[in-house]
Design goal:
CATH class of the largest domain: Alpha Beta
Helix content: 25-40%
CATH architecture of the largest domain: 3-Layer(aba) Sandwich
Number of domains: 2
Strand order of the largest sheet: 3-2-1-4-5-7-6-8-9
Structural class: alpha/beta
Distance between the termini: 38 Å
Shape: elongated
Strand content: 15-25%
Length: about 500
Amino acid sequence: MSDRVISNNKKNRTENQILLAQYFTPQSIAQFMTTMFKKAKSKSDIKVLDPGAGEGMLGISLVQSFNNKKAKSTFIELDENTFKKLSENIDAENVVSAELINDDFINAALELEAESKRFTHIILNPPYFKLNVNSAASKKLRIEGIKVTNIYAAFMWLSARLLDEGGEMVAIIPRSFCNGPYFESFRQYISSGYSINHIHLFDSRNKAFSEDKVLQENIIISISKEKQAETVIITSSSDQQFKDVATRNVNIVEVLKPTDKSKIIHIPEPNQGISLTDFVNNKLQDLDLMVSTGPIVDFRSKEFIKSQPSKVAIPLLYPSHISGHKVIWPSDTFKKQGQYYIPPNNKQVNLGVEKILHRTVLPLDGYYVIVRRFSSKEEKRRIFAAIVEPERINRTEITFENHLNYFHLNRHGLDKKLAFGLCAYLNSSLIDTHFRRFSGHTQVNVTDLKNLPYPNTDTLRKLGEALNSVDTLMDDIVNKEILGKVSRVL
């Protein structure tokens, strides 16, 4: 397909396209996506669907890849200006037997399904934005049994329902659906009657739509409507030019764990070897440890957060108090409104003081390991852990702001060796690489931390004993204790 037909430059996008979170697919990506269709290429009755078609790059590229003038195609696009350009491109590229629908895809998909229309090939680059739970779209989707929080998952779910038996779908979508409770229903649906066949990764999170400065981490995924294949193809490239594609075939159990009820999708890197779970496979609950999210939401608790100490003031830790692997409190450079929390009394809230204290305040009777819930887009590691050392803070109680997760032993601190070992393990490249297999966003949730594999407590204490201070949380110490001589894992 010629470059002249499609405009993908951000300055040429209309305000409505920006509002609809619509990013046109670069030609190189469109062409690569067409190569990911395999089994259905031999079908004589080819029916193509391009949901949210934009100017038609994906659907036109796919139709042309068949070199089959008898292929029927359906293009659905909501934005009127874009729809006009789509129509012009269909004519310019001489795409025959094409049906163009100017409508919202949710409406159009439900109508196609009611008419028993099915497609052998579906290719899509859906918009992505959060769905308001009270929006008309969300309500309509829930009636259909589609429970999603982002529009791209709705596009995928509806498209999957429109697949013919044995049909294939290839989509470029954010990686965030691979884990977390918000996308669990979507993962359950896909894993129940479809086969994940091929997943392509981009080495850098901003390379897929670099011209539009999209920082969401995207993958390309191929799914077919049939029993799950035993092998999944994993490929990766440094950017959208696909000049350095690495390929690896993995068993489906490396991608979807048979015993995982949440159906978290793990994506191993093509150029790496063994799995971390071959060495450690304890869950956090096996260690009798817990992880929770900081209870203090600062914008809701402004009247209880102070900048000056007092007899009843309790240290309030924010992510900004983390310096390296240490916690520096109080901090001279702290920019928030205050570093102290004053628990409310009976007159200020409907709950009793004892319940408030139990809910928000912890005894500083040991060491806590804290993890930032958010990292910036291009930081080298996803998980950033630090140790709260009681001797540095020198108080009897402590509490945490909502942007921190904290590890504890039934709401009490850990012993020093265990805390140091756990902190070192969480900061290791082993965990970072493993975490990236199933997490494509910068948020680290409590559920994510609970689902990580952990060494037993004896091993963690050995790690802690090998460390002289929090400044020596080094990969080589973790690798030696966990892996022996092995240094590369998934």
